[in-house]
Amino acid sequence: xxxxxxxxxxxxxxxxxxxxxxxxxxxxxxxxxxxxxxxxxxxxxxxxxxxxxxxxxxxxxxxxxxxxxxxxxxxxxxxxxxxxxxxxxxxxxxxxxxxxxxxxxxxxxxxxxxxxxxxxxxxxxxxxxxxxxxxxxxxxxxxxxxxxxxxxxxxxxxxxxxxxxxxxxxxxxxxxxxxxxxxxxxx
Length: 187
Prior knowledge:
187 residues; mainly alpha
């Protein structure tokens, strides 16, 4: 069911993709955007896109999508999927993820666990909340910086592995299902 929905959506986007990649500005200045791996969902580009999206999701501020698109072009990943994957971070999840990153970073930075970190700011839908989060992140220092990088790498590796193994399991299941159907028709 989901597979057919994705295929139908991909087919509907093909004229849009062709229009973008054949535009003279794109053809002249950004020919890498015509790479099929950037637009099509296959085993390799999908796994790369999930890894890039999970890695870029921990980039602070509004640079997550920009970072995911740039990394997607560099590693030939499906960049719409990578940009969507960055959405696991939002105002509700970023503080808990950064707390996990801080604790993870303390494992790699010697002597980092000596002081008690300041508590995270309370959530509020305001411009001051963003400033408060950045100030809180600055107070956490080196363990947070190392932890964010290590957590991003860990999430990327886990995401890539889960997609590759899941895709492989699905392919094996489909092969066996087709073999059973052929055997049933032959009998």
